[in-house]
């Protein structure tokens, strides 16, 4: 902190994309030896601003100075030569290569003889220094997402990074892995490096950052305020431009009869590998059962099996007492199983069709929309208008194509369709993922309203906070199995189960 | 990894960026603009080889649309084009690539001829009944030719692109078999002429009542085509089935999620598409040719693919495009050098396809 000169100074950065001003006269300062959080809703321009710093985008206007000297980068390589490196949301590792090979890739040294063992040792050393255990000889495909992230960090450290930018690094991590990452980041700043930590999660920002800058719609709304001098509600209102209420009242409620009963379901995933192994649980009317787990541990496949989109290889599924094992999606719809799919654009909507066409996907077969063979479009548009108002879907009109909706509005359109059929069972997969704080709050309220209306709800989310706030009990999935059930909201225990630990205390499957 | 190319520091720059929003008026304006540009380019080519573009364009316009007589001939060509254009539009809406309209057209002609030539509809049957049976036979034969690739796709996952293409050749040879052999008229490669009851009435037939119609060739097939336009429009935009077709076409995974049976719909759509092309074959054989022979189509089935695209799969626009193409084809028969209308047809096609870029991207000039 004794440095007078900032590690990075960005002044008046302007970056346009077709139809969007992603950065509008943005100033940003990064001090040496600090963790600086860059906070903002989705689409606020965080990734864009940092991509400019990392040499990926050329700004239309503005200047960058690195340690007081002006800099203009033409490529990420340029930026790296001045000590600036960025780890993107999607990693760029080669799965079939080892950790060391991935790190050395694209460097001038070693030239001809690889002398890999020698380099392996150096990787281990760097890893140790910053508290990251990675086996240098492991192939990348064998690594968990958290480990892959460590490889990306190692890659940057090996290239002599002084300013490390991490774009939403916690999105893919389990709670314990997040702790590990934060320790590494602290070790790096202790070593005099500076870090930009991009996030839209307020509690993480409060935990790890020294200072915080906030972007909203491409503009700076807070520049480098001290984390110790602000609060989560203040940051939230800086992000969304209004105050946000964080507490809901979840009314105590006794669950009713069993709506969904899953007994010993197994299924294979997209690559033909086992994705679900002997999964059993029940969901009752009027309760929210949370489904926790790191992405890719069988949650998606489970939702697909329950909605008829994937065949199970063993076990039985009952909805309201009817055996619906391996029935069609249509049969699920007839049983009033609503499904908010994980993939909104590829599964949940038809991008080039209108809002009207999108909201009638589940109801076009029945009166009053259907009239024998024909479809009453006047009625359909009227229905769409009603939903658009009731769920505050922001769009010019109901003829607007779905692809033109923002993430939050598309999600509201999907929810409007699914919830308006008064579901008996609601399978909600990552319903708030990628939404901004205001929209998340709205979606969560809708889920609670369904609970009060007596729907049985299975809620999968990567946000532990959200699961804890909404669920009556939480099932944790790990490698295709229910690793355990947590009823007392013990986050520590959930985290342990999510990473494959703590299974000794596995309670009896219901 | 996406890196931006090095920016020039100064000077105006052409920026092409994806459109987030396409206004409704843009599509027709761009299409008309593309046709105008194509005519100018075509005129350039004509001038380059020493012709007088204006004179030739005037000649083409006269040859295709100049008076009632030629316009009527244009409509005769437009009739089968409308029907096959619809056949392709319907299938393409679901992203089913039926390129077998040509074969389905031949089968429709064969089916319609068969009921007459095999004597199943005896001579002396009232005309409306005879024609009705012929139309049904043509529709059924075309539908059957769509059913086979549909089932192959449903049961064995055979790509409809390959199967419909191959079935074209089978249909053409099948027709040849009948005109060379079974129904050959005393050794000629054509059947005998159908009895009058099997001829679709044409405007000229009513010259006694309406003198204006004297000699006009436009036949009742045009009414079939226009009715088909209305039906296809209704299916696509006002029926449950059409909704399913559009949903599958836009996002099959969403359709599956919505509980729609994609396999069943592929079969149904190929059958319906085949039926429309089959009706085109019946209309041509009964309204124009009046006998079964080889080479009845001059590539209508393939032109239908182009028409469907140019009409952006919109049934109403299919009428306009078909009339335009009918005119160009007609002028091509009458004009010397015969290549010119084809050249213009090609350039128009090229321009329309290229102009699509303008609908999806915005081009602007910026100063760096
Ligand atoms: N490569 C791109 N092309 C077009 N638009 C983009 C591109 N990258 C980002 N945008 C747009 O710029 C805005 C800011 O995006 P981004 O920087 O990714 O936001 P954040 O990282 O804060 O979520 C958004 O409206 C986004 O749609
Ligand atoms: Mg981002």
Instruction: State the oligomer.
Output: heterodimer
What's the name of the CATH homologous superfamily of the largest domain in chain A? P-loop containing nucleotide triphosphate hydrolases
What's the helical proportion of residues of chain B? 55-70%
Structural class of chain A: alpha/beta
Largest sheet of chain A: 6 strands, mixed
Distance between the termini of chain A: 56 Å
The set of bound ligands, ions and cofactors reads: adenosine-5'-diphosphate, magnesium ion
Q: What is the terminal separation of chain B in angstroms?
A: 24 Å
* Total domain modules of chain A: 2
| Strand arrangement, major sheet of chain B | 1-2
Low-confidence runs of at least 5 consecutive residues of chain A: 504-510
Described by the principal axes of the CA atoms, the overall outline of chain A is: globular
Q: Any idea what the shape of chain B is?
A: globular
Radius of gyration of chain B: 23 Å
CATH architecture of the largest domain in chain A: 3-Layer(aba) Sandwich
> Which range does the strand content of chain A fall in?
25-35%
Average the pLDDT over all residues of chain B and give the rounded result.
89
What CATH calls the topology of the largest domain in chain A is Rossmann fold
Highlighted features:
heterodimer; A: 510 residues; alpha/beta; Rossmann fold; 6-stranded mixed β-sheet; 16 helices; globular; disordered C terminus; B: mainly alpha; two-stranded antiparallel sheet; disordered N terminus; binds adenosine-5'-diphosphate; binds magnesium ion
Describe this structure in words.
The complex is a heterodimer of chains A (510) and B (368). By secondary structure, chain A is an alpha/beta fold. Chain A has helices spanning 46-53, 76-81, 99-104, 116-129, 145-158, 175-190, 202-208, 232-240, 299-306, 329-334, 355-359, 377-390, 407-419, 437-452, 464-470, 491-498; strands spanning 8-17, 20-30, 35-40, 61-66, 69-71, 84-87, 163-167, 194-199, 211-216, 219-226, 258-268, 274-284, 288-292, 314-319, 322-323, 337-340, 370-371, 374-375, 425-429, 456-460, 473-478, 481-486. Chain A has 2 domains: 6-240, Rossmann fold, CATH 3.40.50; 258-498, P-loop containing nucleotide triphosphate hydrolases (Rossmann fold, 3-Layer(aba) Sandwich), CATH 3.40.50.300. Chain A is built from 16 helices and 22 strands. In chain A, strand 7 (163-167), helix 6 and strand 8 (194-199) form a beta-alpha-beta unit. Chain A is globular, with a radius of gyration of 25 Å. Chain A starts with 7 loop residues before the first strand and ends in a 12-residue tail after the last helix. Residues 504-510 of chain A have low confidence and may be disordered. Chain B has a domain at 80-317. In chain B, 67% of the residues lie in helices and 4% in strands. Residues 1-10 of chain B have low confidence and may be disordered. Classes of the chains: A alpha/beta (510), B mainly alpha (368). The A-B interface holds A 17-19, 55-58, 74-76, 92, 307-309, 328-333, 339, 341, 346-353, 357, 360-362, 364-365, 370, 373-375, 377, 404 and B 1-4, 6-7, 17-21, 234, 237-243, 246-247, 250-251, 253-261, 362.
């Amino acid at each position: 902190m004794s440095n007078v000169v900032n590690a990075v100074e960005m002044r008046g950065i302007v970056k346009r994309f077709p139809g969007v001003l992603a950065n509008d006269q943005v100033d940003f300062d990064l001090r040496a030896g600090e963790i600086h959080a860059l906070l903002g809703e989705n689409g606020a321009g965080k990734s864009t601003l940092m991509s400019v710093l990392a040499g990926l985008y050329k700004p239309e206007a503005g200047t960058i100075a690195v340690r007081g000297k002006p800099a203009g980068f033409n490529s990420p390589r340029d930026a790296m030569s001045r000590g600036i490196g960025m780890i993107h949301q999607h990693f760029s590792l080669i799965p079939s290569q080892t950790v060391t090979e991935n790190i050395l890739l694209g460097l001038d040294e070693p030239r001809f003889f690889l002398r890999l063992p020698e380099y392996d040792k150096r990787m281990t050393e760097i890893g140790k220094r910053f508290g990251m255990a990675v086996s240098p000889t492991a192939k990348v495909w064998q690594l968990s997402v958290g480990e892959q992230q460590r490889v990306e960090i190692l890659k940057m450290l090996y290239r002599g990074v002084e300013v490390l930018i991490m774009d939403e690094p916690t999105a893919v991590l389990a709670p314990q892995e997040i702790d590990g990452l934060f320790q590494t980041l602290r070790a790096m700043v202790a070593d005099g490096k500076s870090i930009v930590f991009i996030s839209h999660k307020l509690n993480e920002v409060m935990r790890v950052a020294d200072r915080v800058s906030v972007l909203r719609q491409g503009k700076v709304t807070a520049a480098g305020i001290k984390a110790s001098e602000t609060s989560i509600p203040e940051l939230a209102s800086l992000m969304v431009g209004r105050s946000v209420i964080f507490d809901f009242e979840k009314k105590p409620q006794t669950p009713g009869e069993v709506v969904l009963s899953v007994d010993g379901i197994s299924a294979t995933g997209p690559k033909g590998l086992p994705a679900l192994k002997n999964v059993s649980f029940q969901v009752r009317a009027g309760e929210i059962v949370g489904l926790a787990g790191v992405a890719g541990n069988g949650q998606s496949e489970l939702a697909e099996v329950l909605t008829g989109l994937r065949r199970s290889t063993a076990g039985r599924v009952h909805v309201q007492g009817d055996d619906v094992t391996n029935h069609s999606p249509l049969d699920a719809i007839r049983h009033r199983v609503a499904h908010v799919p994980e993939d909104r654009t590829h599964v949940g909507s038809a991008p080039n069709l209108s809002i009207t066409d999108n909201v009638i996907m589940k109801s076009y077969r029945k009166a009053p929309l259907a009239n024998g063979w024909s479809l009453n479009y006047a009625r359909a548009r009227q229905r769409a208008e009603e939903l658009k108002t009731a769920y505050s879907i922001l769009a010019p009109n109901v003829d607007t194509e779905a692809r033109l909706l923002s993430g939050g509005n598309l999600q509201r359109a999907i929810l409007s369709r699914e919830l308006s059929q008064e579901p008996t069972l609601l399978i909600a997969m990552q319903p708030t993922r990628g939404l901004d704080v205001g929209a998340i709050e709205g979606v969560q309220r809708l889920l609670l309203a369904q609970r009060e209306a007596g729907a049985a709800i299975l809620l999968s989310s990567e946000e532990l906070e959200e699961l804890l706030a909404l669920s009556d009990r939480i099932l944790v999935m790990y490698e295709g199995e229910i690793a355990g059930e947590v009823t007392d909201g013990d986050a520590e225990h959930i985290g342990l189960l999510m990473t494959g630990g703590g299974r000794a205390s596995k309670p009896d499957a219901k | 990894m996406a890196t931006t190319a090095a920016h020039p520091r100064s000077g105006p720059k052409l920026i092409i960026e994806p459109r987030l929003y396409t206004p409704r008026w843009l599509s027709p304006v761009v299409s008309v603009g593309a046709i105008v540009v194509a005519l100018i380019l075509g005129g350039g080519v004509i001038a380059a080889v020493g012709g007088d573009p204006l004179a030739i364009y005037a000649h083409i316009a006269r040859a295709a649309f100049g008076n009632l007589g030629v316009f009527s001939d244009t409509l005769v060509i437009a009739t089968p084009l409308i029907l096959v254009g619809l056949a392709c539009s319907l299938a393409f809406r679901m992203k089913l690539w039926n390129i077998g309209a040509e074969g389905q057209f031949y089968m429709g002609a064969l089916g319609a001829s068969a009921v007459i030539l095999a004597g199943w509809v005896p001579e002396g049957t009232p005309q409306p009944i005879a024609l009705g049976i012929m139309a049904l036979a043509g529709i059924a034969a075309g539908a059957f030719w769509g059913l086979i690739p549909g089932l192959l796709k449903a049961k064995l996952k055979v790509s409809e692109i390959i199967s419909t293409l191959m079935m074209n050749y089978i249909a053409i040879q099948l027709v040849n078999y009948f005109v060379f052999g079974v129904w050959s008229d005393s050794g000629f490669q054509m059947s005998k002429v159908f009895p009058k009851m099997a001829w679709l009435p044409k405007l000229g037939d009513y010259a006694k009542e309406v003198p204006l119609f004297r000699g006009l060739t436009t036949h009742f097939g045009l009414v079939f085509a226009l009715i088909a336009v209305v039906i296809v429009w209704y299916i696509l935009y006002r029926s449950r089935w059409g909704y399913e077709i559009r949903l599958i076409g836009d996002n099959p995974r969403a359709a599956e999620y919505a509980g729609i049976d994609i396999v069943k719909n592929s079969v149904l759509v190929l059958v319906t598409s085949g039926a429309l092309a089959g009706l085109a074959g019946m209309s041509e054989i009964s309204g124009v040719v009046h006998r079964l022979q080889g080479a009845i189509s001059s590539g209508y089935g393939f032109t239908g693919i182009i028409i469907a695209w140019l009409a952006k799969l919109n049934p109403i626009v299919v009428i306009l495009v078909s009339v335009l193409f009918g005119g160009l084809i007609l002028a091509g028969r009458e004009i010397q050098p015969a290549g010119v209308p084809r050249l213009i047809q090609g350039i128009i096609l090229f321009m329309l396809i290229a102009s699509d870029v303008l609908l999806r991207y915005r081009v602007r000039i910026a100063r760096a």
